[in-house]
Design a protein that fits this description.
This protein has a domain of 75 residues. Helices cover 75% and strands 0% of the residues. It starts with a helix and ends with a helix. The N terminus is likely disordered.
């Protein structure tokens, strides 16, 4: 009786372990049996990398793609692995490293079919770091530069269409920033400085809902500037 219960319990444990290993993917199986990345072929590394991407293990995925790139530079997966390294870094929120990887890819493969995607992703590396319109806008300007470059070079690409939507967001943040600075100067009664900001806003950004207010405050700033003889 005791032996029968023991066998049933052992079978259950074995079934449970196999199930966990199976549903965890080949990476777990290979790790369980002591197989390292160094023992894998390029095809296996690519499979494992893609599997880790699917499971959200971006650091492991980037290492496996990098290994293909470093150890098998002439393999059919080598170029794809270069791009996947950048994608894995982007997914891991390592945006500076991801940008450098995308930039290297564009420099080494300027005529590759995925270049529109690469330029879009370069823009996104900056775009995702934009926090709000009242903070430093350097990420915004950098994202805007990449999106505009993509639209100019590949206007019919599907990624150009995505870039246009992101570019609108960039303009919106920049317009709000200029307006907030103008409002700050206006409240400080520095009407000449406020007038300059509102004027710049109207001349350099499309109307995204701020036009009428900026026009009103620019006129008001000019009027008050003349009344107070604001010379600053």
């Amino acid at each position: 009786m005791f032996l029968k219960k023991y066998m049933i319990g052992a079978q259950f444990i074995i079934f449970f372990l196999v199930s966990v290993l199976f549903f965890s993917g080949c990476s777990t199986l290979k790790g369980f049996f002591g197989v390292s990345n160094e023992d894998l072929s390029p095809d296996e590394l690519m499979y494992e990398g893609m599997n880790n991407m699917r499971l959200g293990r971006y650091q492991q995925a980037s290492e496996q793609f990098q290994m293909i790139k470093d150890r098998y530079p002439y393999h059919k997966y080598a170029v794809e692995a270069e791009l996947k390294v950048a994608d894995a870094l982007f997914k891991a929120d390592e945006w500076t490293s991801a940008f450098m990887a995308y930039d290297d890819f564009e420099r080494l493969h300027p005529r590759h079919i995925d270049i529109p995607y690469v330029i879009y992703q370069k823009g996104m590396c900056y775009f995702v770091q934009i926090r709000s319109f009242d903070r430093d806008q350097s990420f915004n300007y950098d994202a805007k530069e990449q999106f505009e470059r993509l639209i100019n070079r590949y206007p019919n690409s599907e990624y150009a269409n995505r870039a246009r939507a992101r570019l609108r967001d960039c303009f919106s943040y920049l317009a709000q920033y200029e307006q907030s600075v103008g409002d700050f100067y206006f409240k400080q009664k520095k009407y000449r400085a406020a007038y300059g900001r509102y004027k710049y806003l109207l001349e350099n950004y499309p109307d995204l809902g701020q036009y009428n207010r900026a026009l009103e405050y620019m006129a008001l700033s000019k009027e008050l500037m003349e009344q107070t003889k604001d010379l600053d």
